[in-house]
């Protein structure tokens, strides 16, 4: 492996410390080199933003989990009286909304934000301030949603919020108004992030990294961003129409005026179906990274896995009405969507087979991350197979709106998406924090969660087929559901215990010293060619790329005689090489006040729309002032800020 | 590691296997979707059981593969050997992309034919209009007329002749509901402003249970329905009874109850045969009281066995025969079998028994969504119950 | 943006470039900002697609209010559509002049575009107030709700465009525009043309094609 001999270069970063106001464009001094909590509030660093996404998402995971436990307590026995009907309806609405929009999506965004730039050899994303803005929108949107319990009740129309039940006549509290606006705000986060990440991936890859040499996690995230780009506007339309009806007396879902309630369903599910692929593909990406590392073999059929991911993204637009098989579409529509739904099983199946083929012939190490990855393969297979049975439309008219569907999507979402995220935690923890999560307890956590998942959601297949409908705050004792429901409740607490174990492991990991090895897993992909945690600028010098699994190919070389692979370099050596050829002048985007300011105006506008238009005006003003400040501010601070004799910058303010 | 891994997989397989078995062997599951009692549900069952079996086989194959892999390729003593780095096998991958596609295409054919079969309207059928509203079902028989010239209207329990096709025209008066009787057919949504078709046929006389299966608000869980299929003779008797108007009671207490009913209840609840002081038929104007515009027709309340959206039994437990179809259904609930306790509680404070919106809200004007607590005295409740018992 | 300039070489590690202000090489050939605008416009297609579909579904449901035939003034709207179309022409001229570095003419055409856009919006406001007086309010009928929502969203987008054009004029006044910074003008131009194309679709489907 040729190494260019170069004299060591000095890394010239701007000096630390607070400096005076900028002479450049802009009305306010921007924060520079902030420390403490300001370092987080005004950061534009994708890694910090990723961590904030992650911690916030995990908090909402706990919130959604508590809601789930309350639901299960109510359903532990027939004719339960833990929750009233009203409270129960709020609980299942908020549980789903929280888990989908405030946990799984942002947690995937956390991994995407942290690792996509590292995986492609970039120093940050294309638009760092927009990245920060996206996070604050997510946080404020989530907090906005949770104002509603204090203002008369949370949303209670189900996460799918069908009209006309969601209209003002049938849902008189403000809960749904908070829900609509919260989703609009978090939708802005998703949309801006998608534009950001796509631009980053398409434009900012390391030299030599063609699209078909990108790490597979980045590929899956990219497909997800395209799905978000096109799906979020559709639900935006639906939310706007509902909002206008509830707040301004528009008639979009008013049947008396001639409205068609199915309009909501179509708009929602045209978003809603790509949404489920948005939820699962990042975890597929994580597992596609983890399995090869712990099998010591490359991902089998990388091109097929990439194309099947893209195919899922593409075909996912053609199946939405399989959520509406009982809604009164005619037989032709039903038949078409049944067919398309059956065929989308094909690319998903391809992935599973490719994962098995990756492990076949490998040298499997069962670390905690590997446990979760293999767990995903097993549990997602169960969920996927029940999904195929839903595609059979006549059968689905018996299954839809029963616990059989609840079983399906919890297997694919918990056993699939969440297990993938947990695999990501165990795999990437040392890279992010320089510490390892305890492996032994990690495996305990895994087993507890597996038992919990199967005990909670397994019996739901049975009671669903026995006719237990969804979304019911109680069930009588003469329908035969009682025993399994008790089992499910017990299972849910076991599952919660598993999550608790993880929390303890996570907290404990921060107690010890930061002494994780640089390459604890003998990993394969690009992001491992950094320190742990990575330096603020990620790479001292951007390594060029010659193949997929670039890192692995720098460590191992094929012996000419035996054909075996032997290690020729350690991670430490590769990193040292990089540091020796460090770039001389690394410019990083600078912290900024404006993302949080602009984001803050949005929930204020929301409150104003519900209660008082003057408040909305104040919110709009905050946002507009923030936008003005933002556009006047260059993306990186003026060197003049630190050396006034250097003269003003000629840079025109750019958006990001 | 080996032991625990295989234990996990055995656990998973056991749960899955148990599920399949238990679902098929449900004894006390009146809404079991795997226990068809009519040709439509049978057709769905004939389609789905083989497919479940195929899915089960695929699952077992995948789990077996994983078990084999996990055991065979786990790291041994010679720890860190790097195995052969196989990147793929395109021809194999194409094969295992096409194979499931072909299998699914094969499954698609009977699926599509079943979809169209189930959508086909039967030639000779009784038509019943099914109307959902918060939180009960109304059933209108457009081809059966009462003596006063209006179609027969019932609620909660849809009575049909056994062994004959019934065509349902399903709609809603407010939000989306869904009509479902699992043992007879799949579900179909009741959407306001639209009419949806569903067909049912019960092979044998019996009671078939179902629930509203589209979330419709506060008391969605309390909105249930039943189909009661009667033998030809019982059906004729039932029809003949439904055509009659209610008679004036002879009992003193019941007469008091009737007066009370005419003063208050009739505003929402229609009883054919009631007349006002001038002798004109009393017509209830539920549209002036309720958002949905309708309340259950009580003319033949006692010909039913449940009330309150099939949430409560009109019959006392000792009169209810659980294990087989109650052959006395054609005569409904007799006075000596009446579950007065629940009926009185209902009249005392309805929203306490079944959550409803009994007060108007800002967007409903003066209209409400549910039966309010009427503030009746105990004597008034006794009188009303005595009257209701006469509505056979 | 993270502006590490990369010069491609066969080296293992790529040395940092000294110069700033030079366009960064990207795999797509589009700068980050331009790519971002194209992606954003892609998502906007779905937004307007949803609104247009809603309108097309509800255009015939006019109970309680006037119908499209009764209320539309096609000649008037044709004129304002023409105005908007001409604004795209002036936008093209602005971009061309920005690329040539002619700041004065760039500003002239930017302001003209903004004025034409404002004329269009003014025409919309006049039209809506006229409709309202003739009995078509936002809550009158489904046709009313969906018409105003669709055209209102479009009008909002035009207004945002006008603000961007005027801001750009203000910035160019400070003499900050150089050859490759003309790209900002081009990016605003992309947005403006998109808004115009959406109007052509709306005008055709809503006004010209009868229900």
Give an overview in words.
The complex is a heterotrimer of chains A (656), B (392) and C (211). Chain A has 656 residues and is mainly alpha-helical. Chain A is 61% helix and 1% strand. Chain A folds into 2 domains: 31-319 and 331-521 and 584-592, Cytochrome c oxidase-like, subunit I domain (Cytochrome C Oxidase, Chain A, Up-down Bundle), CATH 1.20.210; 526-578, no CATH class. Chain A has helices at residues 37-41, 46-75, 85-120, 128-145, 175-203, 216-248, 262-295, 302-315, 331-359, 368-391, 393-399, 403-433, 439-465, 482-509, 550-555, 571-580, 594-610, 613-632; strands at residues 556-558, 565-567. A two-stranded antiparallel ribbon of chain A has the order 1-2. In chain A, helix 2 (46-75) runs antiparallel to helix 3 (85-120), helix 3 (85-120) packs parallel to helix 12 and helix 13 packs antiparallel against helix 14 (482-509). Chain B is α+β, with helices and mostly antiparallel strands and 392 residues long. Chain B has helices spanning 2-24, 39-72, 90-119, 232-243, 252-263, 340-348, 350-353, 378-388; strands at residues 126-133, 136-145, 151-155, 157-161, 166-172, 177-179, 188-190, 196-200, 206-211, 224-230, 306-307, 312-313. In chain B, the strands form 4 sheets. In chain B, strands 3-2-1-5-8 form a 5-stranded mixed beta sheet. Chain B has a 3-stranded mixed beta sheet with strand order 4-10-9. Chain C has a single domain, classed as Four Helix Bundle (Hemerythrin (Met), subunit A) (Up-down Bundle), CATH 1.20.120. In chain C, helix 1 (32-58) packs antiparallel against helix 5, helix 1 (32-58) runs parallel beside helix 6 and helix 4 runs antiparallel to helix 5 (142-173). The chains are: A mainly alpha (656), B alpha+beta (392), C mainly alpha (211). Chains in contact: A-B, A-C. The interface between A and B is large, with 109 and 107 residues.
């Amino acid at each position: 492996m040729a190494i260019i001999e170069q004299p060591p270069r000095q890394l010239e970063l701007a000096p630390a410390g607070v400096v005076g106001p900028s002479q450049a464009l802009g009305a306010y001094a921007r924060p520079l080199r902030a420390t403490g909590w300001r370092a987080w509030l005004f950061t534009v660093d994708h890694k910090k933003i990723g961590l904030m996404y992650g911690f916030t998402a995990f908090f909402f995971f706990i919130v959604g989990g508590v809601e789930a436990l309350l639901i299960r307590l109510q359903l532990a026995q027939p004719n339960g009286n833990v929750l009233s009907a009203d409270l129960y309806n709020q609980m299942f609405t908020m549980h789903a909304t929280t888990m989908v929009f405030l946990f799984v999506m942002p947690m995937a965004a956390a991994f995407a934000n942290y690792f996509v730039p590292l995986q492609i050899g970039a120093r940050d994303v294309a638009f760092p301030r927009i990245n920060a803005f996206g996070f604050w929108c997510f946080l404020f949107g989530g907090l906005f949603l949770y104002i509603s319990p204090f203002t008369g009740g949370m949303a209670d129309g189900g996460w799918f919020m069908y009209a006309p039940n969601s209209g003002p006549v049938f849902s008189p509290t403000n809960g749904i108004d908070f829900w609509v606006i919260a989703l609009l705000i978090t939708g802005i986060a998703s949309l801006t992030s998608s534009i950001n990440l796509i631009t980053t991936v398409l434009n900012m890859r390391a030299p030599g990294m063609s699209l078909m040499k990108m790490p597979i996690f980045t590929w899956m995230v990219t497909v997800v961003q395209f799905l978000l780009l096109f799906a979020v506007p559709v639900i935006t339309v639906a939310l706007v129409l509902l909002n206008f009806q509830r707040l301004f007396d528009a008639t979009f879902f008013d049947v008396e005026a001639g409205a068609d309630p199915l309009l909501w369903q179509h708009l929602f599910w045209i978003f809603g179906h790509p949404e489920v692929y948005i939820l699962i593909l990042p975890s597929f990406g994580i597992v596609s990274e983890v399995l090869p590392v712990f099998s010591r073999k490359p991902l089998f059929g990388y091109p097929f896995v990439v194309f099947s991911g893209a195919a899922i993204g593409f075909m996912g637009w053609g199946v939405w009405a399989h959520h509406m098989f009982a809604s009164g579409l005619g037989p032709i529509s039903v038949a078409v969507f049944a067919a398309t739904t059956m065929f989308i099983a094909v690319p998903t199946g391809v992935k599973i087979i490719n994962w098995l083929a990756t492990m076949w012939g490998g040298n499997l190490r069962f670390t905690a991350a590997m446990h979760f990855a293999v767990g995903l393969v097993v549990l997602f297979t169960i969920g996927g197979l029940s999904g195929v049975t839903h595609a059979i439309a006549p059968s689905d008219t018996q299954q839809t709106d029963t616990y059989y569907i609840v079983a399906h999507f919890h297997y694919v979402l918990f056993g699939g998406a969440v297990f993938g995220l947990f695999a990501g935690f165990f795999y990437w923890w040392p890279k992010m924090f320089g510490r390892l999560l305890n492996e032994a307890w990690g495996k305990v956590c895994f087993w507890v969660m597996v038992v919990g998942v199967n005990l909670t959601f397994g019996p739901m297949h049975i009671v669903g087929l026995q006719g237990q409908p969804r979304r019911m705050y109680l069930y009588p004792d003469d329908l035969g559901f009682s025993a399994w429901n008790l089992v499910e409740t017990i299972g849910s607490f076991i599952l919660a215990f598993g999550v608790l174990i993880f929390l303890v492991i996570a907290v404990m990991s921060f107690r010890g010293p930061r002494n994780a090895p640089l390459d604890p897993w003998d990993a394969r992909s690009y992001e491992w060619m950094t320190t742990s945690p990575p330096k603020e600028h990620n790479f001292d010098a951007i390594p060029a790329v010659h193949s997929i699994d670039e890192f692995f190919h720098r460590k191992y070389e094929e012996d000419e005689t035996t054909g075996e692979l032997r290690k020729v370099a350690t991670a430490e050596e590769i990193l040292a090489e990089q540091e020796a050829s460090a770039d001389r002048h690394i410019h990083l985007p600078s912290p900024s006040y404006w993302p949080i300011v602009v984001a803050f105006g949005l929930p204020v506008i929301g409150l104003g729309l519900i209660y008082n238009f003057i408040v909305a005006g104040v919110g709009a003003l905050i946002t507009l002032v923030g936008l003005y400040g933002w556009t006047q501010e260059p993306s990186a601070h003026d060197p003049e800020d630190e050396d006034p004799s250097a003269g003003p910058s000629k840079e025109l303010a750019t958006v990001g | 590691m080996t032991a625990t891994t295989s234990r996990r997989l055995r656990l998973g397989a056991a749960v899955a296997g148990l599920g399949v078995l238990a679902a098929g062997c449900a004894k006390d599951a009146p809404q079991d979707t795997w226990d068809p009692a009519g040709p439509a549900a049978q057709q769905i069952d004939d389609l789905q059981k083989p497919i479940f079996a195929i899915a089960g086989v695929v699952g077992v194959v995948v789990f077996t593969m994983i078990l084999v892999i996990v055991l065979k390729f786990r790291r041994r003593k010679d720890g860190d050997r790097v195995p052969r780095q196989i990147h793929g096998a395109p021809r194999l991958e194409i094969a295992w992309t096409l194979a499931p596609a072909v299998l699914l295409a094969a499954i698609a054919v009977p699926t599509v034919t079943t979809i169209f079969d189930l959508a086909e309207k039967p030639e000779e059928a009784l038509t019943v209009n099914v109307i959902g509203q918060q939180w009960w079902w109304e059933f209108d028989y457009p081809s059966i007329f009462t003596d006063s010239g209006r179609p027969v209207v019932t609620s909660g329990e849809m009575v049909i002749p056994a062994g004959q096709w019934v065509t349902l025209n399903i709609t809603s008066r407010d939000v989306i509901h869904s009509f479902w009787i699992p043992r007879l057919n799949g579900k179909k949504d009741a959407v306001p402003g639209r009419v949806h078709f569903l067909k049912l046929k019960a092979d044998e006389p019996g009671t078939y249970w179902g629930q509203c299966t589209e979330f419709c608000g506060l008391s969605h869980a309390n909105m249930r329905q039943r189909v009661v299929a009667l033998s030809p003779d019982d059906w004729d008797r039932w029809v003949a009874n439904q055509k009659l108007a209610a008679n004036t009671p002879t009992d003193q207490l019941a007469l008091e109850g009737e007066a009370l009913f005419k003063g208050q209840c009739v505003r929402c609840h229609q009883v054919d045969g009631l007349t006002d002081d001038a002798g004109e038929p009393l017509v209830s104007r539920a549209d002036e009281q309720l958002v949905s515009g309708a309340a259950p027709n009580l003319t033949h309340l006692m010909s039913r066995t449940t009330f309150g959206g099939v949430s409560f039994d009109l019959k006392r437990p000792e009169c209810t025969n659980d294990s087989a179809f109650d052959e006395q259904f054609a005569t409904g609930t007799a006075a000596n079998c009446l579950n007065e306790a629940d009926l009185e509680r209902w009249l005392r404070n309805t929203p306490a028994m079944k959550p409803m919106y009994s007060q108007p809200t800002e967007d409903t004007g003066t209209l409400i969504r549910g039966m309010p607590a009427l503030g009746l005295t105990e004597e008034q409740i006794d009188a009303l119950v005595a009257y209701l018992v006469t509505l056979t | 943006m993270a502006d590490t300039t990369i010069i491609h070489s066969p080296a293992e590690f790529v040395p940092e470039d000294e110069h700033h202000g030079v366009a960064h090489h990207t795999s797509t050939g589009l700068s980050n900002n331009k790519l971002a605008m194209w992606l954003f416009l892609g998502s906007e297609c779905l937004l307007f697609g949803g609104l247009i579909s809603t309108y097309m579904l509800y255009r015939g449901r006019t109970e309680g209010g006037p119908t499209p035939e009764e209320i539309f003034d096609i000649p008037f709207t044709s004129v304002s559509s023409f105005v908007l179309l001409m604004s795209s022409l002036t936008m093209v001229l602005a971009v061309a002049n920005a690329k040539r570095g002619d700041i004065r003419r760039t500003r002239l055409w930017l302001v003209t575009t903004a004025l034409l856009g404002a004329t269009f919006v003014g025409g919309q406001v006049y039209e809506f107030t006229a409709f309202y007086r003739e009995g078509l309010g936002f809550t009158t009928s489904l046709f009313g709700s969906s018409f105003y929502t669709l055209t209102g969203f479009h009008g909002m987008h035009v207004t945002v465009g006008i603000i961007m054009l005027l801001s750009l004029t203000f910035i160019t006044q400070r003499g900050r525009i150089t050859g490759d910074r003309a790209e900002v003008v081009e990016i605003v131009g992309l947005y403006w043309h998109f808004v115009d194309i959406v109007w052509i679709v709306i005008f055709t489907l809503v006004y010209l094609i009868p229900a």
